[in-house]
Specification:
- The protein is mainly alpha-helical.
- The chain contains 9 helices and 4 strands; from the N terminus they run H-E-H-E-H-H-E-E-H-H-H-H-H.
- The strands form 2 sheets. A two-stranded parallel ribbon has the order 1-2.
- Strand 3 (123-124) and strand 4 (130-131) form a beta hairpin.
- It is globular, with a radius of gyration of 18 Å.
């Protein structure tokens, strides 16, 4: 198993994270433990899964390492070798459904909208700027100037972004692999320069999911 704190390079960060999770759990706060699968920790995600169970938390893992929003591809150096993707995606952990999440509703929603960015989640910078997603440089407002509720409900830019549907991404909506795909408009943007141009990596992943017979929509 990877040495704790090796990724963050901050002494004690692992213990602090666990302590925070335990505190939230003890206060009956819903938890989700997320991990990013990289070259250095590719063999550890099942340990993180077991940890999430011990903390009575939902589990999420993702191997998608993305370029920076300015196009810098340095982060891709830690991306796992794609030859391991079939083995990784065949693990039942990644298709396990949480009883707390209304999967049948999600499947209907995600046949209409590309992903949950701006609909179910957002990104807030340390400076209070609100974005639909960490990978989408669409500034929808600032918490120093308006409340989150005001931005979430009334931001013109957020409303404009929410108007994008699957049918607007023509090559995706008409693709034979659509049912097996987990579209990411943020990845589309940082890799292809447009939210309407599908990420080639995501397309390769969808083909693998079809071969495994695992639908996502």
């Amino acid at each position: 198993m990877l040495e704790p704190n090796k990724i963050t390079k901050v002494s004690g960060s692992f213990r602090k994270s666990i302590s925070a999770a335990e505190m939230l759990r003890d206060k009956d706060t819903r938890l989700k433990i997320s991990t990013v699968i990289m070259k250095d920790n590719a063999g550890d995600y099942r340990d993180v899964y077991e940890l999430s169970r011990q903390l009575n938390a939902a589990f999420q893992a993702d191997y998608r390492i993305t370029p920076k929003t300015n196009g810098n591809k340095t982060p891709l150096a830690v991306h796992i070798d794609e030859k391991y993707l079939p083995q990784l995606l065949s693990d039942s952990i990644f298709t396990e459904k949480s009883e707390s999440e209304p999967q049948e509703i999600y499947s209907v929603i995600f046949n209409t909208i590309p992903c949950g960015a701006g609909h179910m989640s957002c990104y807030i910078t340390p400076y209070g700027d609100v974005y639909p997603c960490v990978q989408l440089p669409i500034n929808c407002g600032n918490l120093k100037e308006a409340s989150f509720a005001e931005i979430w409900k009334n931001s013109f830019k957020l409303s404009e972004f929410r108007s994008v549907t699957i049918s607007d991404i023509i090559s995706c909506s008409q693709c034979e692999f659509f049912r097996y795909c987990r579209i990411c408009v943020g990845l589309n943007f940082v890799e292809e320069g447009s939210i309407f141009s599908p990420s080639k990596r995501v397309c390769r992943e969808a083909k693998i999911m079809k071969e495994l017979g695992r639908e996502r929509r």
